[in-house]
């Protein structure tokens, strides 16, 4: 994976490239000196939670792309449960970078078959996730609405209500699916900077 880190890091617009384990611990990586200390590690933890929530809800998320501050973040999981994360500047060719990551990871699958067996064996003995009470879910929804109000103003309550109805129609109202709801809400924010601020706040909530 270190060879892939080095290859991706040399592509135009890439500010950082790292490999993380499924718990968000950095295994190896490389980032520009201008990046804030600990930024890649923070993104790794949040992305690990994203993949974990996807697994809990049965979505099977293997790739994610989102905006953080002024960067685009690309994340691709591997068969062993680790994931590759790339931090891109605005002018970077994100589709090309994502394609390169997917191609290289797919080419390395035979090498990673043995760790996959170990990962599945480990996951089989893990305790089930505790259920989250509805009151806790409501607290999270209230915080999301507050963040949305900061982005679009007093109409946030009505917008939130409409999208919660749509969200509940497509599946159970559980914390593991809050990422889907917030992705829907981001589309309602017209200003890119306000959308970035909203996403940053949501990452602290979920």
Describe the structure.
The chain folds into two domains: 2-124, 2-Layer Sandwich (Beta-Lactamase), CATH 3.30.450.30; 134-205, no CATH class. Helices cover 54% and strands 16% of the residues. It has eight helices and five strands; from the N terminus they run H-E-E-H-E-E-E-H-H-H-H-H-H. It has helices at residues 2-9, 39-56, 94-107, 109-124, 134-152, 156-169, 178-186, 192-205; strands spanning 14-20, 26-31, 63-68, 71-77, 83-88. The chain has a five-stranded antiparallel beta sheet with strand order 2-1-5-4-3, sandwiched between helices. Helix 5 (134-152) runs antiparallel to helix 8 and helix 6 crosses helix 7 (178-186). The chain is globular.
Please summarize what this structure is.
This protein folds into two domains: 2-124, Beta-Lactamase, CATH 3.30.450; 134-205, no CATH class. The protein is of the alpha+beta class and 206 residues long. Mean pLDDT is 81; it is low at 110-125 and 127-133.
Secondary structure elements and pairings:
Blueprint: H1 2-9, E1 14-20, E2 26-31, H2 39-56, E3 63-68, E4 71-77, E5 83-88, H3 94-107, H4 109-124, H5 134-152, H6 156-169, H7 178-186, H8 192-205
- Please give the CATH architecture of the largest domain: 2-Layer Sandwich
**Main sheet specs:** 5 strands, antiparallel
Q: What share of residues is helical?
A: 40-55%
Distance between the termini: 29 Å
Number of strands: 5
The largest beta-sheet arranges its strands as 2-1-5-4-3
Can you tell me the CATH topology of the largest domain? Beta-Lactamase
Percent strand: 15-25%
